[in-house]
Amino acid sequence: MGDPNTRRKVQLSRLRGQLRKKREALADQFDFKMYIIFTFKDKKKSPAIFEAAEVVPVMTNNYEDSILQGVRDEAYSLESSKELLQRDVVQLHAPRYQSMRRDVMGFTKEMDFFLWPRNDLEKMECRLFSKWKGEEDPYKPMLADFEFLTPDYEKQLMRLVSRKDKAGLIINNPSQSMFLFIDRKFSQTTKRTVLVFKLSSICLYLAQDQLTHWGPGTMDEIMEPYFGTL
Question: Entry's InterPro entries (predicted)?
């Protein structure tokens, strides 16, 4: 244990374990709703809106490994990664969703949104709502921004083009509040085989002290303008 690097790893491991217990205890007191919105560059085109089938507070070693893999891939710095892992945070994981289009509403499936290559998307964002578990009050908007501009995620996807991994790839927005799990697949066209990236899961990073910080209005009021475009 005389090696400084070994001591640091042990300390980080203990800290993560302590934070994990606290996160689970506090986050379990809330119910969450998440909407995923893809905005197109063509403003005449309605956004693609999905509702997460479930929102689960989660902290796994696989997720931590993915963050550290981001450091190795130079997606963000080592110091930034350590700060991210040590924050007193909740991670909200959404692996399945359903489209809010009227013709397919109610059909839940694994996330598989086509992200790249395409040039029609401007950004994606998540709107997060919560309420105390068991209460009849409406869901309220959380005071947190989760936005990922297309140029920002395309830069990171370009780093993954040469990777051989088919799943478990991860990218994050600049504020490190939004992590996208990516599947790397090949699609066969009439002329050639094309590499594509699809969204397979979303994890939002939220500071614990924000769990009880809500904005004005209700979920229905906030989302009504979006649904009016569908």
Answer: DUF4566
11 pLDDT above the threshold of 90: no
What are the sequence ranges of the domains in the chain? 4-227
N- to C-terminal Cα separation, the chain: 60
Dihedral angle computed from the Cα positions of residues 12, 14, 15 and 20, in that order, rounded to the nearest 10 degrees: 120
pTM equals: 0.75
What tokens appear for 205 in the block? 């990073």
221's CB contacts (< 8 A; 6+ apart) are none
Range list of H helices, 73-178: 78-86, 150-160
**Cα 228 to Cα 230: distance, rounded to the nearest angstrom:** 6
Phi, psi dihedral angles at 210 (to 5 degrees): -90, -5
| Eight-state DSSP code of residue 204 | E
Our measurement of the distance from residue 92's CA atom to the centroid of its chain's CA atoms, rounded to an integer in Å, reads: 8
